[in-house]
């Protein structure tokens, strides 16, 4: 016998029981983003490798070791996108959406990174991302954070996530700070772990978010980024905090928050939870005023964020009552004898006409009453609708209550909508 082919490690199938939760999340996000006037942009999954190298930065984890890069049949180097911001900027520029304009955009879809698969970390994962362009002030930074806060409220997650905030300042401020940090760490080079030694040359700011407790201890007395901020960034940060205070959005300042990618400046933020173990960041973003120019466009201020769909679905499952998100049908429609079965398919259509949104499963495959009844029960349906000879003759239907202790009743078929309209699961 030949061996079964399995899915690639870290690339998951999302089965119907789970996909209802995904859809609930996606629908909620769509509704929230539309209420703020954000437009959806759909982007390709594959781009030229250079796009990511030039935007994310050569010495980041993503570009150094996580990209799925391959040559196509023309010998061009292509990459499965590891994130969405670069593609969004590329598309914005290509279609003239960025120059001298204001844009509020969002996208969703799979991203690919060659990481060690574990809970909350996969090789194909999904993000919902938001990118705004053309706005300089801290008000738009506040708005995108307000979008996320509203989302957590609507999803029932607001009490389980914390907003962490930092400012990276201007390029100059960051360069000054980098020099001071490198100085401090070089004096303690023998105490650095292997990763940090490597990063000391390539990307020293990344050492700040090392997960190693020894490194964290070593960093306790290191220079603090916020003390190196230029005047403009300082004011920007103060106004942002004031706006969040007014909006009643709580935050923690995390001076070690630097984000992994090269293109951020000024505001950076993450929403974190302690309910998921090590993979605690569910949403991350910030300002990236230099990226459009870096990719060949005119200087364009920009702010955005991306959230991890898998981690959010895990949170919904762990922390909220997601019972109502089921694939259980409302009705299981069955008929006795050949005529009964024919009529059952038609009755199922009638119910769908009369009760839009109801989930109606029609029995297929015949069989005796007992067998059909067992299928009805196994389906998880609330109600069985049963057609026998008498019901067909009288235009009625038998209703059996599968999940409550109640006697079977007979209803006129014309009364089905009226009788059930307030009895169905709200999806
Ligand atoms: P982490 O520190 O967890 O590796 P990151 O800084 O690499 O995250 P971003 O590139 O900012 O993450 O992506 C934004 C969000 O996408 C993350 O906060 C997380 O929720 C999600 N995410 C990132 N990588 C993965 C992955 N491999 N699997 C699942 N979700 C992910
Ligand atoms: Mg990562």
What would you note in describing this structure?
Helices cover 38% and strands 20% of the residues. The protein is an alpha+beta fold and 427 residues long. The strands form three sheets. It has an eight-stranded mixed β-sheet. Strands 13-12-14-15-16 form a five-stranded mixed β-sheet. Helix 5 packs parallel to helix 9. The relative contact order is 0.12. The model has no long low-confidence stretch (mean pLDDT 94). Adenosine-5'-triphosphate (ATP) binds next to strand 6, strand 10, strand 11 and helix 11. Magnesium ion binds next to loops.
What key attributes describe this structure?
alpha+beta; eight-stranded mixed sheet; binds adenosine-5'-triphosphate; Rossmann fold; 427 residues; 15 helices; 2 domains; binds magnesium ion
Number of strands: 16
Strand arrangement, largest sheet? 1-5-6-11-10-9-7-8
CATH class of the largest domain: Alpha Beta
The helicity comes to: 25-40%
**Biggest beta-sheet profile:** 8 strands, mixed
Furnish the topology, listing elements before pairings.
Layout (H helix, E strand, L loop, with lengths): L15 H20 L3 E2 L5 E3 H8 L4 H6 L1 E4 L5 E4 L4 H10 L8 E10 L11 E10 L4 H18 L6 E6 L3 H16 L7 H9 L10 H7 L11 H16 L5 E2 L11 E8 L8 E7 L3 H4 L7 E7 H11 L11 E5 L1 H18 L5 E3 L6 H10 L4 E5 L1 H6 L1 E6 L7 E4 L3 H5 L7
Parallel strand pairs: 1-5, 7-8, 12-13, 12-14
Antiparallel strand pairs: 2-4, 3-4, 5-6, 6-11, 7-9, 9-10, 10-11, 14-15, 15-16
